[in-house]
Amino acid sequence: MDNFQKSSKNMLVAQGLDRVHSRRKDPDWIARRMRDPGSLFVAVWRSKVLVAEGESPGPVLLEWKQLEGRAQGDCTFFLGENNGRSYFAVDLDEKASSAFDHVGRFRDLRVVAPLLSRDDGALLAYAKTLAYWHERNHFCGTCGGRNEIREGGHCRVCVNPQCEVVHFPRTDPAIIVLIKSGEKCLLGRQHIWPERMYSVVAGFVEPGESAEGAVAREVFEEVGLRVRNIRYHSSQPWPFPCSLMLGFTAEAQDQRIMLGDEELEDARWFGRRELREAVENGAVKLSTPVSISYRLIEDWFDAESPFRLRDFAGRGFAIRKEE
Fold this sequence. Notes:
This protein is an alpha+beta fold. The chain folds into two domains: 3-136, Nucleoside Triphosphate Pyrophosphohydrolase, CATH 3.90.79; 172-315, Nucleoside Triphosphate Pyrophosphohydrolase. It has ten helices and 17 strands. The chain has helices at residues 3-9, 27-35, 64-67, 94-97, 109-112, 118-135, 211-223, 272-280, 292-303, 309-312; strands at residues 40-45, 48-51, 61-62, 76-82, 85-91, 105-107, 147-150, 155-158, 166-167, 172-181, 184-189, 197-198, 201-204, 227-238, 243-252, 266-271, 285-286. The strands form four sheets. Strands 1, 2, 3, 4, 5 and 6 form a six-stranded mixed β-sheet that branches. Strands 10, 11, 13, 14, 15 and 16 form a six-stranded mixed β-sheet that branches. It has a three-stranded antiparallel β-sheet with strand order 7-8-9, with no helix packed on it. The longest helix is centred in the middle third of the chain and has 18 residues, at 118-135. The mean pLDDT is 93.
């Protein structure tokens, strides 16, 4: 399986929509599509997304007639098209959000994502990320002038004629790496995580640093290990709030763990049998399959085991509390 296929298997990856790059530059076309009866809108409020109530929640997609008078041009963003329909995100203000209490509830995407289909989760993540960036970029970071939306919300332009800087949505690159040594992998936990949750090492890429350099640095800073054979695995957009996770595997030169930067409160080596037993007896909980951390652990575990991680890990996911 090539890297593109691996990344396509990750949750929250919005690949089902045609982003219609050439058409979204036309403001008249965007305005027509907004008012088209067939267009659908993902509602966002305080970075939460509108979903239906019940055991199997799904996104509540609104029509223009439900939003007329509430959706302004500076809070509505074009996402793309699929099967002739246009999809938008709309970031609602405090007053407008309560108008949809009868159809659903605004919920934290991180909590509800494990219950969503792959396409629904990706659509909501895309909308949430774009709304988050716009909320924080009404003014130009260069001159302080007002920024106006362009290209259906895929950039903002400073209106100051002496500036006119174009601002594009920001994504923060971060690495996430499964560290191997022989038949074992390294998992650690932060004290702020749900009880007994363990995951792989992760951290942000710093200025002037390659992704591979960030892997080597973060691993050494967090667990005191030197690594080699750093290999790219796949990537995943992570809208909490706006990161791009770059997944890797790497081999440790030895197994001597030294917690160094207070990022982790514990880290330990797990063989496949040991990890399975720890998950089955509740001593360890893994992040849900929504995350690339799960995919990294799954690919390592399944490669050399008669069991499959999904056969038993469903009983041991770490469930986050809703904010």
